[in-house]
Amino acid sequence: MRVLLMLVLIETNYGREQLSHCTSSNEIETQCGTYCYKIVQPLLQHAVEVYSKEQQFVELQNKIHELERTIINMTVQQAQHAMKDDLIATKNELINQLQLNVLEKEAQITKLKNQNSDQVILRNLTTEQETLRTLVNNKVEIIESKEKQLTDQSKLIETLQKSNEHLLDMLKAENNTLSYESKKKNEEIASLQSEVSELEKQVSDLKTQLKTEKPQATRPETKSLKDPLSDDSTKLCDASHTAPGWIVVQRRLNGSVSFHRG
Predict the structure, then answer these.
(1) Neighbour count for residue 198 (Cβ, 10 Å)
(2) Nearby residues of 234 by Cβ (< 8 Å), 6 or more positions away
(3) Does the N-terminal or the C-terminal CB of the chain have fewer CB atoms within 10 Å?
(4) 120-132: per-residue pLDDT in tens?
C-alpha cells in the first residue's frame, strides 16, 4: 500500500509540472503511467492474496486453540483414569474387610453351634451374615460397573489421542506450507519494489532531462531527444511546426522517423 501511495504521489507531482513542458511530456507520461500500472497491478493482486493468507492463519490459530482445549480435556480424563487404580484398591480393601467380617461371624456361628448356644442368637448371626454377603455382592457389582466405565473412558482417551496427533501433524504441515508461500511472496514484493525504485529513478531522470535539455525552436530544424522509457536511445523532434518556445516530438506508430510526406 505504501508503494501504491508513493506512485500516486509521483503521478500527482508530475501532473503539476506537466503544464510547464512541451506536448511531448503528455506522451511520455502516458507511457510511464501504463508501465507503472503493470508494475503496481501484481502488488494489488498480492495484497488480496496476503489478506486471504491472513484469514487462513487466523483459522489455523483457532484450530490450535481448539486442539489445546481438547488436550486439557484429555488431561482431565487421564486424571479420572488414574482414579481407577485408587478405586480398585479401595474395592479390594472393602472386600477383604467384609470377608473378614463374614469369617468372624461364621466362626461365631460355628462356635455357638458347637456350644449348643441359644438358637435366637444363632438365627440373628445367620441373618447378619446373609446381610453382609448381600452387601458385599452389591458393592462388588457397583465396583465392576465403575471398572467398566473407566475401561470405556480409557479407550475413548486413546482414540482422542490418536485423532489429535493426526490433527497436529496436519496443522504443522499446513503451517509449513503457509510459511513457505509467505516467504516466496515477500521475495516477489522485494523484486517488485526494486523495479518500482528503478522506474522512479527513470522518471526523475526524465524530469531532469526535460528541465535541462530544451532545444532551441526559434528556427526550423530537427533535434534529437533522449527517451529513457523507450528501447531507442534517441527520438527526433521537429521545431518547424510550432511557434517559438515549443517543441513537437513526432513519431510514427510503426517506429519510422521519416514523418514528412512527399
Answers:
(1) 11
(2) 224, 225, 226, 227
(3) C
(4) 777 788 888 888 8
